[in-house]
Known about the structure:
Helix content is about 30%, strand content about 20%. It contains six helices and eleven strands. Mean pLDDT is about 85; it is low at about 55-60 and about 155-160. The strands form three sheets. The chain has a five-stranded parallel sheet, with helices on both faces. Strands 4-1-6 form a three-stranded antiparallel sheet, with no helix packed on it. The longest helix is centred in the C-terminal third of the chain and has 19 residues, at about 240-255. The protein is an alpha/beta fold and about 260 residues long. It is globular.
Amino acid sequence: TGLIIVGRSRGVFVSINGAAATRDDTTIADGALRTLRVTGLTGTNNINVWAGTTSGSGNANPLFVGVDSALIDLTTKVRLDQYGDSITQGQGATCPGNVDTMAVAAALGYVGSTYGINGDTVAILKARIDACLAGKDNDNTKDVAVLAIGRNGAGSVLAGDFSVGIQADMDYILSALLVKYAKVLVRGVMPESGNTFAGYNGAVTAWVATKDTSRVKYIDVSDMDPATVNRTDGVHPSDAGYVTMNGLFTTRYTAALA
């Protein structure tokens, strides 16, 4: 039994039954189609497939997955979607498909996606969240959102005070997400060299505690400094850093969703 994957992404990731993803890279011209066949499948399997482009490829990500007649869709798919900034985008990785959300989703039995834009602040995400959610057909009894924003603070200033304005924007974002999702995991800002963001993360922790804690959970990242999560530039995780994040967040999200 085999799985046939056709698309325009130079990098394709496949995780079978929540295992670590295998990455298959090929060299194709921009806009060209590539085909990948996953073989040797036996029994019943949960298979996650996602795309990622190499830096500067200018190549769109869509994938089309076909299956042999022996493969059927056994269950309703549930989503784990992450919203954030350049760390969510996977800026420090060799391929955006390496970003932590995708592998964590596969490990937990979800379908993953990531919505991260380099330089986004809380205010910018607030301005675009409605448009981002408008076309999504989520199941708000099962799907999960991860809110990983705040590192860029307000304007060009790094996250510091959880100001009244930032809190109001976070209230807006959270309210919008809770319409589409059963639960929202609010992630702290990972420490960097010389900046632990302890004050900001402490304020966000207290803010989360004022919400419906059956649906909104804080995810602690205070131990995820550069010594633990490798960075390419002191800020953005490398491929190895994302692998570490995969393991840590799989454990933490599992506990938060229990």
